[in-house]
Amino acid sequence: MRALIFATIFLFSTSPFSLSSVISDIDKSDIELSTRFDGTSILVFGALSPENDDTSLLVEVVGPSTSVNIRKKVQIWGIWVNKKIAHFQDIPSFYQISISNPEHPILKEIENKKLKSLFYDFLEITSKPEDGNVVEQYYEELTRLKKKLGKLNTFEKRVNIIDKKLFSHRVNLPKKIHPGLYKIKMTLIDQQGIELSKSEQSVKVSKVGVQEFLSYNSKNNPVFYGLFSVIIALFLGFSAAQLFRWLYR
Is residue 19 pLDDT above 80, yes or no? Predict the structure, then answer.
């Protein structure tokens, strides 16, 4: 595998391509989520042709879309309930961004722009807020929790560039990830953050085995899934009761 990767990079680096261009590839395009899945990594590599030394390479990983509800305890007719007051609709379940130049002059502006377009702009308020700054609070709390869970990383790792032509970067995916299509985007930018060239790869993450069976039936056969869950619960309960009865006999 390593020989194949370096051979591919060599071909990329010796092939003629226009200025300010980037060519990329990845070492795996399919990931299986089994009961033994404990996280994995993806090697992103390729070649680039920058116009000058001020060009930087961005590597983004965007996971499949998901929705996050924001609930708050409110009192209704004397009963405290969790009421949905807002939600983030169709936001990435996983997002990571890295750059080859950590000293880029507008690094913070790039981060704020990316996160705003992916998360902040998709917040919908369903209940009238009492505080005018509640939107900012929800957004900051969402990003904080995602970073804590390892599902949001911004400029924590540097993209490695060799001789200003070849690049490599390893993307680490945590244990708990959503199945679906993960997009890996490589973008050449200048000192002002203007995009000069793009390249994109995709990784398909899918459930296999028992997880695939349960996930499919929970969405497509809810009645069967419910009955199956009850039967499994009864079987495990009966087995546990028999085991304790045998142990304390």
Answer: no
> Buried b / exposed e across 181-216, counting CB within 10 Å, b at 16+?
ebebbbbbbbeebeebbebebebebebeeebeeeee
User: 83 has which bridge partners?
Assistant: 72
**Of 64-73, 77-86, 183-192, 195-204, which range is least confident?**
77-86
- 213 in the same domain as 203: no
How high is the pLDDT of residue 3?
Answer: 47
Same domain, 183 and 215: no
**Burial bucket for residue 225 (CB in 10 Å: 0-12, 13-18, 19+):** middle
Is residue 136 within a helix (H) or strand (E), and if so which, with residue range? helix 134-148
Residue 104 confidence (pLDDT): 92
Average pLDDT over residues 176-182: 91
pTM for this one? 0.75
Residues 183 and 227 in one domain: no
Confidence (pLDDT) at 84: 78
Counted domains in the chain = 2
- CATH classification at residue 28: 2.60.40.1930
User: Are 200 and 215 in the same domain?
Assistant: no
Contact 93, 66 (CB under 8 A): yes
Q: Alpha-carbon torsion 111, 114, 116, 120, what sign?
A: negative
Q: Is 33 left (phi over 0), alpha (psi -120 to 50) or beta?
A: beta
Compute how many other C-beta atoms are within 10 angstroms of the C-beta atom of residue 165: 15
Domain holding 13, by residue range, is 2-207
* 95 and 43 share one domain: yes
Q: Are residues 183 and 246 in the same domain?
A: no
For residue 60, give both structure tokens: 């983004």
